[in-house]
Design brief:
Elements lengths: L3 H5 L2 H22 L3 H22 L3 H19 L32 H18 L11 H26 L16
Helix pairs in contact: 3-5, 4-5, 4-6
GO biological process, one term: retrograde vesicle-mediated transport, Golgi to endoplasmic reticulum
Membrane topology: Multi-pass membrane protein
Family: Belongs to the RER1 family.
């Protein structure tokens, strides 16, 4: 049996670097939380870089299709309430269905920050996958695009009908400001 420092010594600097990197990354993520517009502009820039990469190499359509399906799944979570009245038998904690009900703010199943973070990671991972030539599967991309559009329309139609049925709006319009009587 060897001493404790013989095998663990080379791994300690790597573990320390990983811990420091993780801590610094979390620090900057926490600092970016209140800057919603800037975060989304950064994500838009990452998405445009990905789109330009796919356009430039004229390939990786299967990766783009998978990315589209993943983003659609995230969008459904973003537009859905945390507690779905259709799926759970609730003990009085449902969405308000008439004007006399108590106001309950809309709580998303997928909060905005996690939605942003997941989409950004997805675009970065998909961008990195475009450098692996084995993943450039030759497909007829218009069929994938048409299928994704049909999937998007049907999914959003179902989601909008759910919003109408249970009378909720997943958007914050902001605090109403009253200017007084005119």
């Amino acid at each position: 049996m060897e001493g404790p420092g013989s095998e663990g010594a080379p791994a300690a600097p790597l573990a320390q670097w990983r811990s420091d990197f993780s801590r610094a990354f979390q620090y900057y993520l926490d600092r970016s939380t209140p800057h919603t517009v800037n975060r989304w502009l950064g994500t838009l820039a990452v998405a445009m870089i990905y789109i330009l990469r796919v356009y430039y190499v004229q390939g990786f359509y299967v990766i783009s299709y998978g990315l589209g399906i993943y983003v659609l799944n995230l969008l459904i979570g973003f537009f859905s309430p945390k507690v779905d009245p259709e799926l759970e038998a609730l003990d009085g904690a449902s969405l308000p269905t008439k004007g006399a009900d108590e106001f309950r703010p809309f709580v998303r199943r997928l909060p905005e920050f996690k939605f942003w973070y997941s989409i950004t990671k997805a675009f970065i991972v998909a961008f990195m996958l475009t450098f692996i030539s084995v993943l450039d599967v030759p497909v007829f991309w218009p069929i994938l695009l048409c299928y994704w559009i049909v999937l998007f329309v049907l999914t959003m139609k179902r989601q909008i009908l759910h919003m109408i049925k249970y009378k909720y709006v997943p958007f914050d319009i902001g605090k109403q400001r009253y200017t007084g009587k005119k």
